[in-house]
């Protein structure tokens, strides 16, 4: 049950990251999403969605690896 919940938590950021990449690609080729009125706004929101989605998934993976003691300790 816990793994299913974890998968559901990851689906939203993965979807947002994919949507962000699509919006950036569309902005580069000049295709405007009807909800947004400016190409630069579309590209900026796409970049934000992509960075936040990838950062969330990466942070989640790092947290799980630390919890399972698979990440080496930092040396001072």
- Give the strand tally: 0
Class of secondary structure makeup: mainly alpha
**Helical stretch count?**
2
Distance between the termini: 39 Å
Shape: elongated
Whole-angstrom Rg: 17 Å
The largest pleated sheet is described as:
none
Helix content: over 70%
Strand residue content: under 5%
- Unreliable residue runs: none
Tally of domains: 1
Rounded mean pLDDT is: 92
Order of helices and strands: HH
InterPro entries: Uncharacterised_YqzF
Protein name: DUF2627 domain-containing protein
Organism: Macrococcus hajekii
Keywords: Membrane, Transmembrane, Transmembrane helix
Keywords:
transmembrane helix; mainly alpha; 76 residues; 0% strand
What does this structure look like?
With 76 residues, the chain is mainly α. It has one domain. Helix content is 74%, strand content 0%. Helix 1 runs antiparallel to helix 2. The N and C termini lie far apart (39 Å).
């Amino acid at each position: 049950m816990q793994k299913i919940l974890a998968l559901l938590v990851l689906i939203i950021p993965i979807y947002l990251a994919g949507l962000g990449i699509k919006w950036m690609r569309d902005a580069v080729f000049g295709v405007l999403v009807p909800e947004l009125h400016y190409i630069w706004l579309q590209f900026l929101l796409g970049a934000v969605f992509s960075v936040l989605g990838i950062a969330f998934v990466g942070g989640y993976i790092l947290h799980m690896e630390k919890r399972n003691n698979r990440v080496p300790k930092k040396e001072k």
